[in-house]
């Protein structure tokens, strides 16, 4: 039970009597950091949440964007970190399940899953490898069975996640605007619980997630059953079509306690329920256990009495259990009975609104002690360095992961995984481009700029497909918020994101905060994860691999920003240096320019320049086209006197590589000059080698075939043979 | 021509195949829930992919005992074209309409990727527009896609020309690289790859023509030339 002394006092003062144990359990679940956002809620208000496309309705668990022609896209992001660190298969699988039900609860069909996975050093740590492999299997088995394609995401390994796991799942939904559930309820309506039986799994899961991970509390991890989830999806969508749903909420963290109190509070109603009416997995569950169980695959529905026979008929068709557990009252109370006996009777708004906290913040000491420059030995052969980076787990191809995910089901996937952003076709002829990005290495050095960088990178990826960003979701993952140094990093990231969102006019349509991400050796690096959604009216730019004679261009300036780069951290094992920063105006100008080039069909492919810097972005293009490229490094726009090492590996933002057909090169150059964009025509694709020269010196000379093998085998070899 | 799409609890490619039949190839199609009967006016039956009953026990085995399967068997006997895709193939095998079994891939993982098929038999209602030996680019997505049968059965499949598709390269450990087979009379076809995922150029990263021919073959069978 994790109610603080102050919280207990607050309860005594407001309620004026001793709480029953059930009431204490309900409040403890709902007031956990996980459910209540008590540390962050005040501050999250600075994020811009309104915009042209945003539809705001009460009680939605997902963001809703209007994509025109009577259609909407819904989006949500969540994590399942604590459970995945203990039981990666079940933890990751139920993470998918939870976010899918959030999409469903708006009345939309889930059409895509994205996942961001972060683990310890899998090259040397077999436990990290075990966690990673099982999390991937968990996501694959769950998503594949649902028939929802997992079409993108990212995978990153860093020492800071040793003995831990970050499993972030984002989901996209699609539906007709007039079929959205308009959450409402009338006195006398029935409260119905449908789906899997309530059992003893996931007891106190939200409190488990709101604490440091000290023991391995397996009973707090939920058990996945994707088959029931699939049946629930079809049941709910059919019930929606038959207008059987007045209001709906997913049972997630905090179980029934959270679903009942939050539904009652947001609709301004009271709910009375009898726990004896709830279908359970086993006999003898106490009211306390029933109220805080986080058994998966359950949905709460409010329906009219006369609609119950129809709802029952639909549930019977799919063999989904359906229990009317209570009804709607006007007294705004949450009333839990077992037969005649009352176990809890509390004002719903009191339960749903934990007292918010003012956390202290202070700049972390470590930031003052970071080294500015890497004093390691100079590298003489960059070709070898590039090969080493290409096969490193963070950069190597992730096909071992995404080939385990059905990314084609639903027949919407136009741009498949493995490129900059994935693109789905929508029923109104438009296309949706989505990418999620995080970068803990940058965020550790500079939580503000690092977070902005993740946001910009996700935008760049979406822009590379020709889509205009219209919304973002953020998932803010940090250590213990009671530590003022950690809270400072949270606030820095949040403020950075808010500033950039306001500047770009890209509203935040959803998100989540996850604190207490601590490993036995300390807090994780700040890990905000940003998802960006973009819309295109015409078919997207499906990247065409470069071919003989195509030109390579770069847009944007390369700066002295090796801090947090793969080059510093993987090659030199050095943490420090200048974290890349984003110049807002240039960022926007470059985005608009690339979009305009794509719109006018002037480029064959646009590729974001990020992890591993220019050298890796160029290698990826060459590998993709199976063709060499000869370039002159002096043509890359940089700040003054930038060393070769920095030009090759700096991870400066707002940069794009463009592949341009010879017939369009003059028009592209003219357009870029007119727009006053910093760019360079670097060379041409041809032959079998990548060659980077400075004057007459060869800096890089590498065979594409060798690079290709390293890039495709790097991660797979590691996982196949151990 | 009217195509019946059989839907089991856990089917998840039913809507995709419906879209391709109706929006892309202008055919009539109707869903049939596994507890219903198939009316005799149906001209072809498709068992779509998915995870019927969550692959519990073994992929396809519970669905193979659904009430609707006896109707499918009767129609198959009458010569009505029946196509099982992915989980649909697994169901056809489990119900005895096709010989052999589908086992876990030798990689032990689910595999979703674009691969090449080689047409071995162009004498079925779903392959009559294809050429013998023609190459088709098409995606697979399965965890239990390794076709297996004993030597005698394999020999019989070869003798009776029942191997419809093979993989261009060894992929998942399938006997004789088999990707799809048919019954002796050729009207019941099962295949692991997903033709509905390759029938439109918008979502097909390669040339879409050959896989569309699987549906165009069905049109030809129905006497509709496109």
Structure keywords:
heterodimer, A: 722 residues, alpha+beta, Phosphoribosyl-aminoimidazole Synthetase, Chain A, domain 2, 60s Ribosomal Protein L30, Chain: A, 3 domains, 7-stranded mixed beta sheet, 25 helices, 24% strand, B: 226 residues, alpha/beta, Rossmann fold, 9-stranded mixed beta sheet, two-stranded antiparallel sheet, 11 strands, 23% helix, 25% strand, globular
What do these coordinates show?
Chain A has 722 residues and is α+β, with helices and mostly antiparallel strands. Chain A has three domains: 203 residues, PurM-like C-terminal domain (Phosphoribosyl-aminoimidazole Synthetase, Chain A, domain 2), CATH 3.90.650; 272 residues, 60s Ribosomal Protein L30, Chain: A; 221 residues, Alpha-Beta Complex (Phosphoribosyl-aminoimidazole Synthetase, Chain A, domain 2), CATH 3.90.650.10. Chain A is 36% helix and 24% strand. In chain A, the strands form five sheets. Chain A has a seven-stranded mixed beta sheet. A seven-stranded mixed beta sheet of chain A has the order 23-25-22-26-24-27-28, sandwiched between helices. Chain A has a six-stranded mixed beta sheet with strand order 1-2-3-6-4-5. The model of chain A has no long low-confidence stretch (mean pLDDT 94). With 226 residues, chain B is of the alpha/beta class. Chain B has five helices and eleven strands. The longest helix of chain B is centred in the C-terminal third of the chain and has 13 residues. The mean pLDDT of chain B is 95. Chains A and B meet through helix 7 and helix 9 of A and helix 1 and strand 6 of B.
């Amino acid at each position: 039970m994790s109610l603080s002394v102050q919280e207990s006092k607050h309860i005594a003062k407001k309620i004026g009597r001793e709480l029953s144990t059930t009431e204490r359990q309900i409040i403890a679940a709902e007031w956990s950091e996980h459910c209540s956002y008590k540390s962050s809620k005040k501050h999250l208000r600075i994020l811009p949440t309104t915009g042209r496309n945003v539809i705001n309705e009460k009680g939605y668990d997902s963001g809703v964007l209007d994509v025109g022609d009577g259609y909407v896209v819904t989006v949500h992001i969540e994590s399942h970190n604590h459970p995945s660190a203990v039981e990666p298969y079940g933890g990751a699988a139920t993470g998918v399940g939870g976010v899918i039900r959030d999409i469903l609860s708006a009345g939309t069909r889930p059409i895509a899953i994205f996942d961001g996975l972060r683990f310890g050093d899998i090259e040397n740590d077999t436990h990290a490898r075990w966690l990673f492999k099982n999390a991937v299997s968990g996501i694959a088995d769950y998503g594949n069975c649902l028939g929802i394609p997992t079409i993108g995401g990212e995978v990153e390994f860093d020492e800071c996640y040793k003995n831990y796991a970050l499993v972030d799942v984002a989901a996209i939904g699609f539906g007709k605007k007039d079929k959205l559930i308009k959450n409402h309820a009338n006195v006398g309506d029935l409260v119905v619980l449908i789906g899997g039986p309530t059992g003893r799994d996931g007891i106190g899961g939200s409190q488990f997630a709101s604490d440091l991970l000290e023991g391995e509390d397996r009973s707090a991890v939920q058990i996945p059953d994707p088959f029931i989830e699939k049946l629930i999806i079809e049941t709910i969508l059919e019930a929606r079509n038959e207008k059987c749903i007045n209001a709906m909420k997913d049972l997630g963290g905090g179980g029934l306690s959270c679903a009942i109190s939050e539904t009652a509070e947001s609709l301004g109603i009271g709910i009375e329920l009898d726990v004896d009416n709830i279908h359970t997995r086993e006999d003898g569950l106490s009211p306390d256990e029933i109220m805080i169980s986080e058994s998966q695959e359950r949905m709460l529905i409010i329906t009219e009495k006369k609609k119950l026979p129809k709802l029952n008929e639909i549930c019977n068709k799919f063999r989904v259990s359906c229990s009317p557990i209570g009804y709607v009252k006007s007294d705004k109370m949450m009333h839990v009975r077992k037969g005649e006996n009352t176990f809890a009777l509390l004002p719903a708004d009191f339960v749903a609104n934990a007292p918010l906290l003012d956390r202290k913040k202070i700049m972390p000491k470590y930031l003052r002690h970071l080294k500015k420059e890497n004093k390691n030995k100079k590298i003489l052969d960059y070709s070898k360095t590039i090969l080493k980076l290409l096969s490193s787990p963070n950069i190597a191809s992730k096909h071992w992961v995404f080939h385990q995910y059905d990314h084609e089901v639903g027949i919407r996937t136009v741009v498949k995984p493995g490129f900059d952003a994935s693109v789905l076709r929508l029923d109104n002829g438009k296309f949706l481009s989505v990418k999620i990005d995080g970068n803990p290495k940058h965020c550790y050095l500079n939580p503000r700029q690092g977070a902005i960088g993740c946001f910009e990178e996700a935008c760049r990826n979406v822009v590379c497909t020709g889509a205009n960003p219209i919304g973002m979701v953020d998932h803010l993952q940090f250590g213990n918020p009671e530590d003022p140094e950690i809270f400072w990093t949270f606030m820095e990231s949040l403020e950075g994101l808010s500033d950039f969102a306001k500047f770009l006019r890209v509203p935040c349509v959803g998100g989540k905060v996850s604190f207490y991400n601590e490993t036995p050796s300390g807090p994780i690096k700040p890990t905000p994860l940003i998802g960006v959604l973009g819309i295109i009216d015409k078919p997207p730019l499906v990247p065409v691999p470069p071919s003989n004679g195509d030109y390579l261009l770069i847009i944007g300036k390369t700066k002295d920003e090796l801090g947090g780069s793969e080059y510093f951290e993987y090659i030199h094992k050095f943490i420090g240096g200048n974290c890349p920063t984003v110049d807002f105006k240039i960022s926007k100008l470059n985005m608009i320019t690339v979009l305009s080039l794509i719109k006018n069909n002037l480029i064959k492919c646009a590729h974001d320049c990020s992890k591993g810097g220019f050298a890796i972005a160029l290698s990826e293009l060459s590998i993709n086209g199976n063709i060499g490229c000869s370039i002159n490094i002096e043509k890359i726009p940089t700040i003054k006197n930038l060393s070769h090492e920095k030009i090759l590996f700096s991870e400066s933002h707002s940069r794009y590589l463009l592949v341009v057909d010879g017939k369009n090169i003059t028009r592209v150059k003219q357009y870029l000059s007119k727009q006053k964009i910093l760019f360079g025509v670097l060379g041409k694709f041809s032959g079998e080698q990548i060659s980077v020269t400075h004057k007459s010196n060869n800096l890089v000379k590498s065979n594409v075939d060798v690079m290709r093998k390293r890039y495709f085998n790097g991660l797979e070899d590691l996982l196949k043979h151990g | 021509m009217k195509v019946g799409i059989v839907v089991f609890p856990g089917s998840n490619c039913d809507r995709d195949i419906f879209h391709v039949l109706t929006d892309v190839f202008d055919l009539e199609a109707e869903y049939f829930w596994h507890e219903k009967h198939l009316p005799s006016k149906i001209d072809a039956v498709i068992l779509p992919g998915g995870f019927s009953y969550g692959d519990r026990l073994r992929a396809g085995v519970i669905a193979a005992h659904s009430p609707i399967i006896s109707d499918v068997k009767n129609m198959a006997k009458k010569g009505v074209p029946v196509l099982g895709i992915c989980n649909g193939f697994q169901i056809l095998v489990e119900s005895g309409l096709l010989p052999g079994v589908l086992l876990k891939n030798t990689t032990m993982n689910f595999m979703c990727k674009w691969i090449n098929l080689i047409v071995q038999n162009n004498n079925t209602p779903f392959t009559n527009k294809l050429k013998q030996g023609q190459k088709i680019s098409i995606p697979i997505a399965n965890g239990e896609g390794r076709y297996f049968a004993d030597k005698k059965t394999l020999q019989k499949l070869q003798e009776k020309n029942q191997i419809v598709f093979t993989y261009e390269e060894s992929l998942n450990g399938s006997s004789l690289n088999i990707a799809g087979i048919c019954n002796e009379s050729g009207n019941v076809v099962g295949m692991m790859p997903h033709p509905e995922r390759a029938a439109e150029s918008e979502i097909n990263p390669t040339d879409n023509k050959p896989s569309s021919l699987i549906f165009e073959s069905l049109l030809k069978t129905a006497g509709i030339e496109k």
